[in-house]
Design brief:
The protein is α+β, with helices and mostly antiparallel strands. The protein contains eight helices and twelve strands. The longest helix has 41 residues.
């Protein structure tokens, strides 16, 4: 190997993207040393070392102690490296899964907030909604002296025991329009808007309406839904879904929370004067 095969520390730094100061630090700590030293004591590297130093950089990024990397520089064998890589592959895979889950949580909230900022809050209309994956909890029990949060706490505990990530938004589902009108603040089920949920809010036409207010406040929304359905000859045909587009995640004042209520509908002629329920 003649002098033309060697790279100065600056040239090696340019090729690897690793700063000169880091290369010097690696050398001084015994983690990664240059192939040779010149008469002037300058560090010189070979192109073959590019692969080695990049792996060193990856190991350092994974949190492998410098002392361990330094030991491997002198005592490495194929089996030792296989064992090391296998261990860190497992650890890194778990970190990736956790980060991917966090990314899905953030995207779910961002989608709701962006949608909430664009809606006409005073308008009631039929919209073709896409399917929404969710996880539906057990039927709620508001009997006796149970308060709302007694039931909500039970849902959270049960869902967590089943491995549901409760970082996602939580909504309320009513069995039908009558259940919603009779007790709009007490859903028959809670559900989590979970991308990997085993349940689904089906795609299809829904009457969709909005209102502002703290959790459980529906104002005149039930009446608006009924009047709209009657005036457009629509028949409610499924569960009612309550989802907060804007809540404490993005709004300081609870009076500014934005609730979306959606109910699946079909076009249906009814005898004159018959009320849609």
């Amino acid at each position: 190997m003649d002098d033309s095969d060697f790279l100065s520390i600056s040239a090696f730094s340019d090729l690897t993207g690793i700063s000169r100061s880091t290369l010097i630090y690696y050398d001084e700590t015994g983690v990664f040393s240059p192939a040779s030293r010149g008469d002037n004591n300058y560090r010189y590297y070979t192109r073959q070392q590019i692969i080695t130093v990049n792996v060193v950089n990856v190991l350092r990024g994974l949190g492998v102690p410098l002392k361990e990397i330094s030991r491997l520089a002198n005592e490495r064998t194929p089996q030792v490296m296989v064992d090391l890589f296998t261990s860190h592959e497992s650890s890194l895979g778990k970190q990736i899964d956790k980060l991917n889950e966090s990314l899905k949580v953030l995207r779910t909230f961002r989608s709701l907030i962006e949608f909430g900022l664009q809606v006409d809050e005073s308008r009631v209309a039929v919209s073709d909604l896409e399917a929404l994956p969710i996880h539906i909890g057990d039927a709620n029990d508001f009997g006796g002296d149970k308060q709302f949060y007694d039931t909500f706490d039970r849902y959270c505990k049960t869902a967590r025991d089943r491995g549901v990530n409760l970082s996602y938004p939580i909504g309320g589902m009513f069995s039908d329009i009558d259940s919603f009108i009779c007790k709009p603040s007490k859903p028959d089920f809670f559900f989590s808007i979970t991308p990997d949920g085993n349940d689904e809010k089906p795609a299809g036409p829904y009457v969709v309406a909005y209102t502002h207010g703290y959790y459980g406040i529906t104002n005149d929304l039930p009446g608006r839904l009924i009047r709209y359905a009657e005036s457009h000859s629509l028949e409610f045909c499924g569960p009612v879904y309550k989802i907060y587009m804007l809540d404490e995640i993005s709004i300081n004042d609870p009076n500014g929370y934005l609730l979306q209520v959606s109910v699946p509908v079909v076009k249906g002629a009814r005898p004159s004067g018959e009320r849609v329920r």
